[in-house]
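thread from #wetlab-drylab

HS: before we spend reagent money on co-crystallization trials with SN-glycerol-3-phosphate, can we at least see a predicted complex? here's what I'd submit
DV: go for it
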Amino acid sequence: MKFFIDTANLADITEAQDMGVLDGVTTNPSLMAKEGITGADNIIEHYKKICNAVDGHVSAEVISTDFEGMVAEGEKLAALNPQIVVKLPMIADGVKACKYFSDKGIKTNVTLVFSAGQALLAAKAGATYVSPFIGRLDDISTDGLGLIADIRLIYDNYGYETEILAASIRHVMHIIDCAKIGADVMTGPLSAIKGLLKHPLTDSGLAKFLEDYKKGN
Ligand code: G3P
């Protein structure tokens, strides 16, 4: 399972990269705004910094909602660095733009996916990644993990190579359950990634080992 970090915060990205477990980064306009990164030029510069901080894919989201605008923006983003994945919204023009980019060999991530039908469209358009938002479905009392399972089944039925990128991950159990279902990638905050480390028996066991080592020296 690939681990992406879902943030535009460079310190968090660097910390996850330094742990040695990071495979990429996802961002969106809200995450950029949260870090105070506003304006097209600043956002472009920030994408360059993120690419320099990590080895893997970096999803960079277009703001346009029409095909021509998405193509223009996506081509500019893709030209920044080979690590860039053009992130497109799940709307009709986004699907069309996804097909355009996949035909050109440019990597894509179709975002704001909330149904199996939308995920099927993304795969047919040749998306590199599809991003179902499981936390936001859970927020409205709908089974986010059930959607991941449905997409896994559909993609496996037909051999679609689009990678399921479980997004809107909120906590450790989302990661574990997505791994059990077979999501290809999860993207979540640093807190969820570091949460995987924690077990009280690890902490007490280590404390005892160190205590016993001191007794023998
Ligand atoms: O990757 C999608 C993500 O940024 C949305 O997360 O927590 O705002 O639903 P959240």
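DV: Strands lie at 2-6, 24-26, 57-61, 84-89, 108-113, 129-132, 163-166, 185-188.
HS: ok that's useful, forwarding to the group
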